[in-house]
Amino acid sequence: MTFEEREQITKKNSDDLLSQLIYYQGEDLISEILRLGIQSLMELERDEHIGVGSYERGDERRSYRNGYKSRTLYTRVGPLVLQVPQTRDGAFYPSILERYQRSEKALVLALAEAYLQGVSTRKMKAVTESLMGKEFSSASISRFASTLDDELDCWRERSFTREYPYVVVDARYESCRVDGKIIDIACLVALGIDSEGYRHVLGVDTSWSESNDSWDRFIVGLKNRGLQGVRLFTSDDHPGIHHAIKKHYPGAIWQRCQRHFTVNVIDRAPKSRHDDLYARLKQAWDCREYDEAKTVLDKLSDDYRQKYPDLAGFVSEHAWETLGVYYACPVEHHKRLRTTNMIERINQELKRRSRVVRIFPNPLSCRRLFTALLKEWHEDWISGRAYLNMDLLKEFELKKRLHQQERAPAGEPNIMTQKTITVAL
User: Which of 170, 177, 197, 283 would give a disulfide with 386, using CB separation of 3.0 to 4.6 Å?
Assistant: First the structure.
């Protein structure tokens, strides 16, 4: 089949879907849109698995279509009755169904547990029955949770087999019921960029608070699972994070999040000075060389010392903590590593989902939902485009070694020259 013929079939399928939605007479249009979308994606994935489209012939065929199996997918917009495509070899199952089921199960379980433990309002019973299509029982929830937890725990505790030069860590708080009281628990998350430039979710866990001990357990847990090759950690200024990094990764550079630092600086000045402070901090961090950035920050501190000594002292004492990227990575990587923005985008998504639950029935429920969501982000990242060009890091490291070689005292043995000679021989 030619490309033009394939395009015509694709357009016809799209027109058919649009016609179904336009003339849909049911009550819940959103559910129907979601059902048709998932159904279409499953059909396309089966075509890819088989190797040829419907009514096509070709040498690339690997299997044959074998009808459909009815399956009900429980979602937040209600139960969706899907026709899951089958293949004759029995080796096909839609990946979108697996992933969608995982995160939706975690969310529905959180809501169900909330209802059983009395966290919800009176409307929760009707909402949860609509989600699952039936009433909840402790036995059914325990059975669903056990299956899902086995899968998520295996992924969350997996060992690392590659190096991660860059790591970003952060925490957010969620309301949770513990021993009849509602408290805020900390959700710790670590993201990493591997040696090929792809992003990974390295770890997620819950703790009673964002304390020194909790961060120490979290960081040492990453180390015990094989996290190595870290050049740069980026985080806010929580002392527990900094202490854990120094203790378990003494050779790594710590980068204080410039966005958090900007907030800390602006809080020490009147509103009339905010624009000037923001512009001058940005000017410093956009510099290509460390010395240039340090000069701009020192000038800022000197200019504000007379009227705002607290602000000037803070900049003078802590501004250098925001310049770690100059020692750890090429300038082309600075923008994506000098803040925790990479993890903030994920926090927004976690917040969007946790807002549905409002109050988690227990810490395990919170960790289950966040692990399911982060696992999906992780799978998208490692199968998508690289986040950074890591060839630039190799060039940066080579220039750094050459610079150290030039500054080495005369008469000292040159390690790089010795290595080069050995390789040449």
Answer: 197
Indicate yes or no: pTM above 0.85: no
For residue 103 the two structure tokens come to 């995160």
Instruction: Select from 183, 171, 154, 255 the least CA-distant residue to 219.
Output: 171
Residues 250/300, Cβ–Cβ less than 8 Å: no
In this predicted structure, the answer to whether residue 27 has a pLDDT above a threshold of 90 is no
Q: In angstroms, rounded to a whole number, what is the distance separating the alpha carbons of residues 204 and 156? A: 7
Distance CA 190, CA 201 (A): 6
Q: State the angle between helix axes of 363-382 and 95-116 in degrees (0 to 180), rounded to the nearest 10.
A: 170
pLDDT tens-digit map of 374-406:
988 898 899 888 999 999 999 999 988 887 777
